[in-house]
Amino acid sequence: MARKTKAEAAATREALLDAAEEMFIQHGVARTSLEQIARHAGMTRGAVYWHFKNKADLFHAMLQRVRLPFQDLVEALDDPELAKKPLEAIRLACISGFEHLERPRYRRVHAILIHHCEVFSDIDPLAMQNEMVEESCGALRDYFHCAARLGHLRDDIPPELAAQLLQSLLGGLFHDWLRNYERFSIYEEGTRLVKAQLSLMRASPSE
Amino acid sequence: MARKTKAEAAATREALLDAAEEMFIQHGVARTSLEQIARHAGMTRGAVYWHFKNKADLFHAMLQRVRLPFQDLVEALDDPELAKKPLEAIRLACISGFEHLERPRYRRVHAILIHHCEVFSDIDPLAMQNEMVEESCGALRDYFHCAARLGHLRDDIPPELAAQLLQSLLGGLFHDWLRNYERFSIYEEGTRLVKAQLSLMRASPSE
DNA sequence: AGGTATCCATACGCTTTTGCATGTAAAACG
DNA sequence: CGTTTTACATGCAAAAGCGTATGGATACCT
């Protein structure tokens, strides 16, 4: 086979990752062979082993194309007024997260990570999920603590509890949606649910 | 090998299922061979192929040992007074569900179904999860509708929304706990969160 | 322009796992 | 008590998938 230009090589690498996503979603990670991925991209296993060390390495590369830490979502809002309205910051960050998730690549990769792969070699999807949850839950706690100090939170709801409630709500919604994304839009449903939940926990204006 | 009595044969069948649970939890479903399961139960593959048609059949048998539909949890309460207190019925049913889930076998099998298996042959764990969610969410909706009619629900929260909020909350908590059950007790945390959430949605006694 | 590194296809050996076929000793049955 | 069926263990053939070694044509560099 003839050597390709650098741009072409990079393109085949992306094509392999795209093919891997589709096959992983369709047949699960463990049940798809490198041969299947290569064929689906119009290549052979040789291409795969050139660009990636093995299946775990390919999997890692696939994950690295999508990353969205909660903190970044808040900072991306970039509105100095939000420091004084932590509940609003939480709401907008959630909405921003929902927007990201509706992009096909983000949705696919997260669906793979959560629903279509088991532990294999050095990849532990549960540990990765724990990291994601840990990170976003920590950020939520900070904002709810801030809200409590400002008196924006109902005084019978400690900030820790508020963070846990919202965290579980988001997690449940996330899983439900990934399981069958065509049934509803996580952007619309998520916006509704988060708004409702926050309004339940917000201090009534009278006090 | 000598033939065993019928009771002994049934015992080895259970032993094989137990071994399968442990190996599936530890290494994932796809990565454990029938040989590993048999050896871990002190048997050979011959025993496995005698009791089960193949891996999918064994998997199905494993699932069939644990079943807990939401409706049964409510009926098991068997308290005629609860018909007049739907929110309390929901709370107690959730608590009862948490109790079931803390039993090792229930926890293990659900963890396998949700976190340690992909699609394989005719088994589709996502479809099973959808059934479970659909079933429990439907029951929740009924009870919240009942609560709304009785005026037990805040009038700014439609019963559908209340059901979705609680459903997502339960789902998120469930996934978090299964991911690492040693970190907290789903019975304690679940009781706390459900109580808090229901109290947020309950109509204030003044009205 | 020549040499070299790159990008990928092809081929080979190896391990793992599956499904079945066969063997067998004791339980179950009449 | 003899026969049949049960409840496995053992052995074998086949396929699948992985990792690597090799080959080859061309882009890239100096």
Automatic annotation (TrEMBL), chains A, B:
Coiled coil: none annotated. It holds the Pfam family TetR_C_2. Residues 10-70 form the HTH tetR-type domain. It comes from the Bacteria. GO terms for molecular function: DNA-binding transcription factor activity; transcription cis-regulatory region binding. InterPro entries: Homeodomain-like_sf (IPR009057), HTH-type_TetR-like_transc_reg (IPR050109), HTH_TetR (IPR001647), Tet_transcr_reg_TetR-rel_C_sf (IPR036271), Tscrpt_reg_MAATS_C (IPR013572). SUPFAM superfamilies: Homeodomain-like, Tetracyclin repressor-like, C-terminal domain. Residues 33-52 bind DNA. Keywords: DNA-binding, Repressor, Transcription, Transcription regulation. This is TetR family transcriptional regulator. It comes from Vreelandella salicampi.
